[in-house]
Amino acid sequence: MIDLIVIPxxxxxxxxxxxxxxxxxxxxxxxxxxxWVQVRLGPMRVGPxxxxxxxxxxxxxxxxxxxxxxxxxxxxxxxxxxxxLVPALIAFAVIPFGSSVSLFGKKISLAIADINVxxxxxxxxxxxxVYGIILGGxxxxxxxPLLASLRASAQLVSYEVAVTLxxxxxxxxxxxxxxxxxxxxxxxxxxxxxxxxxxxxxIYFIGGLAETNRAPFDLPxxxxxxxGGFHTEYSGMRFALFFLAEYTNMIIVSSVATxxxxxxxxxxxxxxxxxxxLYYVPSWMWFTLKTLLLLYLFLWIRATxxxxxxxxxxxxxxxxxxxxxxxxxxxxxAGKVLLGS
Amino acid sequence: MITQTHYLVLSTxxxxxxxxxxxxxxxxxxxxxxxxxxxxAVNINLIAFSYYLKSEIGQVFAIFVICVAAAEAAVxxxxxxxxxxxxxxxxxxxxxxxxx
Amino acid sequence: xxNTDELVINxxxxxxxxxxxxxxxxxxxxxxxxxxxxxxxxxxxxxEKLSEHRDWTQIVMLTDRMDYCASAAANLGYxxxxxxxxxxxxxxxxxxxRTVLAELQRIASHLVWVGSHAMDIGAVTVFLFALRERELxxxxxxxxxxxxxxxxxxxIGGVPQDIPPGWDKRVLKFCDIMDEKLAEYExxxxxxxxxxxxTRGIGVISGPEAVAIGLSGPPLRASGVRRDVRKDEPYxxxxxxxxxxxxxxxxxxxxxxxxxxxxxxxxxRIIRQAIEGLPAGPVLGKAPRLIRPPxxxxxxxxxxxxxxxxxxxxxxxxxxxxxxxRVRPPSFCNLQALPRxxxxxxVADVIAVIGTIDIVLGEVDR
Amino acid sequence: MEGQLAFYVLSACILGFAVLVITARSTVHGILFLxxxxxxxxxxxxxxQAQFVAVIQVLVYAGGIVILYLFVVMLVNLKRPPExxxxxxxxxxxxxxxxxxxxxxxxxIALFGYVGPGVGAExxxxxxxxxxxxxxxxYTDYLVPFELASVLLLVAMIGAIVLARREL
Lengths: 341, 100, 366, 168
Fold this sequence. Notes:
heterotetramer, B: 3 helices, D: Four Helix Bundle (Hemerythrin (Met), subunit A), 2 domains, 74% helix
């Protein structure tokens, strides 16, 4: 009973609160990093160096008026932000944050669920997030959001193809679809898959930028062009849910990249005996560290690059990333056969 | 105890709902949706058989069915768009010309 | 939007990327712009009519309010026009100071342009970098005349006061800083693939067409037409300095970017020459206390950061205010190229094109 | 016990949402109900130990095909509702009658049809390595159908592009 219900429930609560707090502070981190890049200070007023800023933001969004446009489709308008956020959150179910920890004499795995189609599960769940964007834009009954949501959904669907194709080459290398299995395969392999599949990592990261609507692919919410994108008509907490979902997705993309390419919870060079002392650092720390590194990359890129145009974005997705990903699969498969492993 | 029969009844019911949808609605898009429902009924059957016959063949066929559904949706929606562009309607009653 | 009828989208007047209260009615075919209607007048304050009821000296302050990103250029244009009416000799030191102010103003205005243009295309960091440098220019202006935006920095016959002590040194120092920071913008933009992709081949206009449509300033020069009032009809002290006129060849958004970036360098070059050769002497000419120019009319243009700003003033010789006051605002004339420039491009390019012609709505609507 | 409960809950949801799909007034709502329906069907597949098909159901059906529907509905912004017709019930009655005939046919098949041997009431026991098994079958025994399916998709893709192109 305890093993079946209580512990998973605790895990879920723990992960959800952890993720939500992480998202809040990711927003602060983004503002701070952007500010530092742009020679500013960023939020400084709420708490020392603005560390309480996220709480103030959330409070503000909570007490803001919640407006539903008169001509909006009421039900869909309400459902859309939820539909965006829920897939983003439930994707965390299969991500292994660490190997395992002992708590009160019980060994608790740091992955809520280790299912045999873990990677596919993430892809499937992520593909549902598009709905919220389309519906949010459509139900607002306004031109700019509609345009933006059409763009966004086309963008997500096209980059999903490239991203999923990179997964195939990783699966080929690892020989399993389970997230834990993939990390273990990297342990057995002795190197992170980043070094085995550098191209796949690059494609995955670019695709991830596009799938989370981050710069330089942040067209769906390009405020200079579309006044805020598909969530223009949203306000208050519903807007906050969209916001939350975007940052949750960033964390998802980074954690999946960490698991697939950066060895998950493993320390660097997991098999080198001389570096065994690295295991003294808890496994979840390594995971967090790597994820943060990738998140930093996200923010850095946002502060540096201009934005692509819609047709250029589509061209990159279909004419560059997808062919490269397919070629990568072919090469991986050929290598697998030739090396006989 | 859930037996094969339960699944067969479920899929029959789902198929029936799909048939009713095709027969009664005039919106072509809803008719296509009903066809998707029917295809899903078939898939439930296949998967249930695969489960009770202890063989994955049913699942393989379910994947083929999904393929067909994808193809059907693509072509069907293409036809709807082409039709809509000419007649500005998606009412099936007005789809009474072989060519224009 | 999928079917044959076009989608009409109203961009502005409340839109973050129209640089003020510009309204553009776009006819779209999918994402492609079929036609664009520019609707202006949301910021009309009647400056021209207002000027006909003011003293000649009071109008200087009104010219501040036209192009609020480049007030000094309008001040200069107006004062020189009146001086031309009065046939008034401006002391050489005043002319030098005016040149320095005009060129500082050009840098400040171009900084606003490069920042907002880059931000429209998504490079937010450039915007903040540019504003950081603009702050230095504003500090210099504040030191000179006490204002940071609407300077009212010139008088008919010269400048209101001599430069504060040490100001010239600080201007030179700013020139060094500016040259250095320019490299930062260049690393962020000039060879950036995305920037190239967004600006190359966008909003192309050929030289003859640009002339026909009445473009002036950097957009005209980017199309390869050598026309710069500073060289062609020198005013202030421009005939005494050496500087080049950067020219473009393709006439697209990227060329306009390059031309303006080069103008930064030329401006610091002019400022350096002017500060180093700053002659001694008075800074205000012998203008009468009550200005009442003889009857007549005159047109005088100078090169504002946006283009050719011209003043056409008629004096009846009796009253203490102009009989007719009319401005040729560069933003207004350049803006009429907008529909021509964006036709056939995508919605996202509208933003880039609005940015590239560098308009200030205060000047368009007056 | 849990399996039984899950089956009934899932079935109820599947049928309920299916009814909502065909009765929804707004096409967009109908499509949304269809997505929910598919998600529950996927749940049913998990119950039947077909994880791979379940994921494919969500990924391809819910995440791909239905998005296509949504796109088309958004593009086809209707000026008049397609159901507007003088005699609203004429086709409805006839349609239900025809559907009942189909149902009767099914019942007949169930009653009088030949029941083959070998279908045990006890199910399950499928391999845990579901993905590998399905993949193996697809690429060995069913290679030709698999390739044909990909050709079918290619043809459908080209067909859809040709149909949806503005000028032929």
